Hints:
The protein is built from 8 helices and 8 strands. It is α+β, with helices and mostly antiparallel strands. The longest helix has 27 residues, at about 1-30. The protein has 2 domains: about 45-115, no CATH class; about 120-225, START domain (Alpha-D-Glucose-1,6-Bisphosphate, Chain A, domain 4, 2-Layer Sandwich), CATH 3.30.530.
Amino acid sequence: MARTRKAASATGRSRGPAVRKTVAASARSPKPRAKAAPRPSTGTNELLAKVGTAAVLRATGRPWSEWLSVLDRAGARAMEHKDIALLLSRKFGVPDWWSQMVTVGYEQARGLRAAGERADGFAASASRTVDAELDRLYDAWTDPARRARWLLDAPIDLRRSTDGRSMRMTWTPGGSSVEVSFRARGPGKSQVSVDHGKLADARAARMQKAFWTAALARLKALLESGR
């Protein structure tokens, strides 16, 4: 009986400090940010921030699965976007553009960022490959009369264009940004990609994605009809 009481007493003494220590540590620890439900890892086929794990591996030397573990160990769940990007750039030598992409992918995977959300707001994208030469596709964007036939009366202001390669526009209500890129896809084929960023919320992103998807379908029909 004496040994039993002694063991119970020892157990009681060890439990109290451990509980207090755990509570104290929890109080000191920063609370992680949370915006969306975490996305489960899909292993070697991981796709985050619209970038596959093979591309991340080639550019940074690590696949998504490793970056998620590395950033978890570094306490990135409780860090701001800019601080995670700086950590990747300064400590791990990740190039500036890729440090942003890895940060966005990590935030999406850990539920800190909703799908389509970036550091400067939400974004929507769309693309189309058309049976037309690159110069015809580009002209359909730069010529105001031709553009109006498929883009209709969209409220855009053309800010800058690079001949046959890209252009930047402002969506005047709200001042969001539209970036357009063009690429040849072989004999008689070309592709246009639209990235509409700095949108206010996920609803605006869904609306703009639907708009650009429909607009590019009209553009494709126009070019492939020979008009």
